[in-house]
Write a structure and sequence with these properties.
alpha/beta; Rossmann fold; four-stranded antiparallel beta sheet; 7 helices; 10 strands; ABC_transporter-like_ATP-bd; P-loop_NTPase; ATP-binding; ABC_transporter-like_CS; Macrolide export ATP-binding/permease protein, putative
């Protein structure tokens, strides 16, 4: 089976005055469809930069990135925005929910940008919130939800356009240990439904729950290892 994600010699540098500062240094990585992968590293290791490239939020300085056999390094910004909307779901540490909107309205938002009719938006959002265990909290605003519930809303929002790839950047960083495990259990369930998941984390307990753990340091991949859950 062809890999879903192929990174070939990816480098990323930022200009700082007259100097170029390297962040990623020749990353080679293959991720298969339906795989659950964690990318682990300390602060400043380059893991978030790598996620931004995988998620089409940034482009590499050099190298090639293939998603479903398409070379995204040749795509325009508008074409990359379409890929993000249609094929990639994002989950972040701080949830990024609209505070004055209900859980239902927050989950419906990506479908507005995708041009999905209003009647279908509501139906799909209700279904997705029910899928993450919040079918009874549709009309609650973020301030009326716990941290774990807010992250579940964010996960529902990330999944509502049926992306093939879910990217999670430190998804448990703002949660206590029990709630963190509940979120990771949800990721396990979603992965069993054939969603490809990539989690960026600095926490070993989170990283080891993936099928494969990738360690990155100083912009380079140090090793691959199996997680505790396969």
């Amino acid at each position: 089976m062809s890999a879903m994600i192929i990174l070939e010699n990816i480098t990323k540098c930022y200009q700082l005055g007259d100097n170029q500062v390297p962040i990623l240094r020749g990353i080679d990585l293959h991720i298969q469809p339906g795989e659950y992968v964690s990318i682990m590293g300390a602060s400043g290791s380059g893991k978030s930069t790598l996620m931004n490239i995988i998620g089409c939020l940034d482009q590499p300085t050099d190298g090639q990135y293939f998603l479903d056999n398409r070379n995204l390094t040749t795509f325009t910004k508008d074409e990359l925005a379409l890929i993000r909307n249609q094929q990639i779901g994002f989950v972040f540490q701080q949830f990024n929910l609209l505070p004055r909107s209900t859980a239902l309205e927050n989950v419906m938002l990506p479908m507005i940008y995708a041009g999905i009719p209003k009647s279908e938006r509501r139906c799909r959002a209700v279904e997705m919130l029910d899928r993450v265990g919040l079918g009874d909290r549709l009309m609650n605003r973020p301030s009326q939800l716990s941290g774990g519930q807010q992250q579940r809303v964010a996960i529902a929002r990330a999944l509502v356009n049926n992306p093939a790839l879910l990217l999670a950047d430190e998804p448990t960083g703002a949660l206590d240990s029990q709630t963190s495990q509940e979120v990771m259990n949800l990721f396990q369930t979603l992965n069993q439904q054939d969603i490809t998941i990539v989690v960026i984390t600095h926490e070993l307990e989170v990283a080891t729950q993936a099928q494969r753990r990738i360690t990155i340091c100083d912009g380079q991949i140090l090793n691959h290892s199996k997680g505790e859950v396969t």
